[in-house]
């Protein structure tokens, strides 16, 4: 059977009263296909439905067309309610497609929302054909030249790839930050108090510990939260453009400056500027940044006029700034300007109590991302896998954990991630650099046993930190026969319990 399905439009009613054709009547009487059924969906103008049915069926009878037109009432609060329209179209198309019907959909009558839903369901799921009429009552068959399912899958894959590459995206409120561990609870208390001030702050921590997440939370908890937060990675600033990026430029200031440009300090005026990896700034840029912090003024490149800016500075780095100040690679005066409030994020290996909640958050976000894949099964994680994760050192911290879980979800054959799933995708990065323990000067009186004991002490403490203080696991890591041997070493080297994490 050939079935035409259409929404009822106001123009269809008005033209009927003038005994003239509009969209539905045009397609019903002029298309080369003679329809066997015409299903008209309507939610308005109920007083005219019977008149319209009688008028259209009379025309079809006169033209010896077999179809019977019927109007079916549809309950919805608005003709632009996408959810209601989708439910209605899916119900009718699913019913019609169960029989051996060839379904045609009229795209001319109804609201744009009705047309959009009709195309999505008709093309993407039910293999319908599409018709529309012109102002001159012409009939046109519409060909939609792409496969919705394939297009969706391709776009979903691209979206998933971008999301996985971007890493975790936790919200910026303090109560959303994971803080089961004592160290993180203290840190969040400090950050919350710091947010209430307008002071500059320096966030320290290894790569991947979440310095930008914490900076976002500090901004969100501050009096500037309604204003903009601008972020710049200082390690990616090209030195020949740094002045323009930070302070802006006027038209004609240099080749290619074809219009005025407000730098990041002006863009963040009234808000916050987050300088990520501030330890990467060159000495020349450090001088310029110090001047802005001292005077609260910037000058665009090529301009003689100074401009006042009101910007709170948050900075972060994984580099040892105090050592860099000592060796002269980072300006001492700039360091003290930035380090009014200092917060150091602990690495993941020092906040193992937070790992189960972090894993739960990350896995929920990965599941939401991968849900775009057809037939994707949401993943959970076993207790043994979580315990395995807690034992790992995670040199890349939360970012490394995110990437590992993403790979595990991608390759897992079951809906529950096992210890083997995690271990199988964990990357073991090896340093290309030489051993950190360079040989000491060999001079008269050198004590080789003391030197060896120093190395043993460092490696034992590292093993204890990695295993959470478990002597049996630490002994196994060190290749010792049993934990008693390790205990004897610790006693001899006077490694106290305060070395344990």
From TrEMBL:
The keyword Metal-binding does not apply. It comes from the Bacteria. CDD domains: AAA. Keywords: Activator, ATP-binding, Cytoplasm, DNA-binding, Nucleotide-binding, Phosphoprotein, Repressor, Transcription, Transcription regulation, Two-component regulatory system. It is found in: Cytoplasm. Residues 177-410 form the Sigma-54 factor interaction domain. InterPro entries: AAA+_ATPase, AAA_lid_NorR, Homeodomain-like_sf, HTH_Fis, P-loop_NTPase, Sigma_54_int, Sigma_54_int_dom_ATP-bd_2. The keyword Cell membrane does not apply. This is Sigma-54 dependent transcriptional regulator. It comes from Alkalimonas mucilaginosa.
